[in-house]
Write a structure and sequence with these properties.
Radius of gyration: 30 Å
Number of domains: 4
Shape: elongated
Largest sheet: 7 strands, mixed
CATH superfamily of the largest domain: MoaB/Mog-like domain
Distance between the termini: 38 Å
Strand content: 25-35%
Length: 390
């Protein structure tokens, strides 16, 4: 990077990605009910409050028996029965899955493996057969999840089973998206000089899937309107689309200057998406949030989203750093002579129709491959940036 009054210019792609990761600190934490916390990021380690299972229980429906058979059936134990007792040799009780095992038991004789005549039942039972032993899954104090892990539905179930009612998670990031442009249409087909807004319906759910609380607005190509909209935002991140170039209708840099923002990344040596911007309020400005300017072309905007927005959100959420996934390309990719190239891929296959303004390749892709300057040959291993898919 070289010096510039408005901040660094043309950062290398990996440098920009790492700068974005370091640009934010974790948001405050809050305690939430388990079902409300799903989708958030854990802010404190979670340990089990009890053994799991917390008592010996039956893994099958059948008879719980003691000693050797045949056994006399004397009672029935259902799941949820809190009675305690002891089986004597030669004694059996009907038992349902999940019911507590009485002391003295040999094992569970499954219905399909036993024969009952009157009050007597007989069959082969191994010691400990179909008994879920206390602590088989975990013991009280065992680590269930670490700070920085996502709180998934499955983890919510495990946490509940291990005795928790609430967990500590990070507050979700609040994101304001400002889609810039006089040429954008909200409905219908594009017409001469006007194009359909493809970014609003794409970016909002994408950011929500990343755990953000999102508000989307539109702003004309007007410096005063843009400056006022940025100044009024109280979001953790303000994202603009379009307006990061040097054209007559591009006002993001002028608005940054008016609001005393300092560029942390001012352009990236990447195609598509090279005019992307990451800025923070200057030390003299008491209030303000991170500003990320994305290019206006759809694939270029997604390039900026994955390069700058995603690492910033992960840092705000307190997620632990993760290495990029790698794939071995199954076809050659012609690269840019001096810039990194981000190319839509499905699996390891590069996709066509991947120009800055195109969406066809992106819609079919599961990742963007990071192609070094000069290109990559079939069989070469490259990093990929994951695309959210259902």
């Amino acid at each position: 990077m070289t010096g510039h009054p408005d901040g660094p210019v043309q950062a290398a792609w990996r440098s920009a990605y790492e700068t974005a990761s370091a640009a934010a600190s974790p948001l405050p934490e809050l305690q939430m009910d388990l079902h409300e916390a799903v989708g958030r990021v854990i802010s404190r380690d979670i340990t089990a409050l009890t053994d799991l299972p917390s008592f010996d229980s039956s893994a099958m429906d059948g008879w719980i028996v003691a000693g050797r058979g045949p056994w006399k059936v004397s009672d029935r134990i259902l799941a949820g029965d809190t009675r305690s007792g002891r089986l004597q040799p030669g004694q059996a009780m009907e038992i349902t899955t999940g019911a507590a095992i009485p002391d003295g038991a040999r094992g569970v004789l499954r219905y399909e493996r036993g024969q009952r005549v009157g009050c007597l039942v007989d069959g082969e039972v191994q010691v400990g057969a179909d008994i879920r032993r206390r602590g088989l899954e975990c013991h009280a104090g065992d680590l269930l999840a670490k700070e920085g892990d996502p709180f998934t539905p499955a983890l919510a179930g495990l946490t509940a089973a291990a005795g928790h009612d609430r967990v500590w998670v990070r507050r979700p990031a609040v994101v304001d998206v400002l889609v810039l442009g006089d040429e954008l249409l909200d409905r219908g087909c594009s017409s001469r000089g006007r194009v359909r807004d493809a970014l609003s319906p794409m970016l909002a759910p994408w950011l929500q899937r990343l755990g953000a609380v999102v508000s989307v607005g539109r702003c004309r190509d007007d410096l005063d309107l843009l400056t006022n909209a940025l100044a009024a935002s109280t979001a953790d991140i303000i994202i603009t689309t379009g307006g990061t170039g040097k054209g007559a209708g591009d006002h993001v840099h002028a608005a940054m200057k008016a609001l005393a923002y300092t560029a942390l990344v001012n352009g990236v040596s990447v195609r598509p998406g090279h005019p992307m911007v990451l800025a923070a309020p200057s030390a003299t400005r008491r209030s303000g949030r991170l500003l990320i300017g994305l290019p206006g072309n759809p694939l270029a905007a997604v390039s900026g989203l994955l390069t700058l927005v995603v690492p910033v959100l992960h840092s705000l959420n307190g997620r632990r750093p993760q290495s990029l996934r790698r794939v071995r390309l199954d076809a050659d990719v012609q690269g840019h002579p001096s810039d990194t190239l981000l190319v839509p891929v499905r699996g390891a296959t590069p996709l066509l129709k991947a120009g800055p303004a195109m969406l066809m390749g992106l819609a079919r892709a599961d990742a963007l491959a990071v192609i070094p300057e000069g290109g990559a040959a079939a069989g070469q291993v490259v990093d990929v940036l994951e695309i959210l898919r259902t």
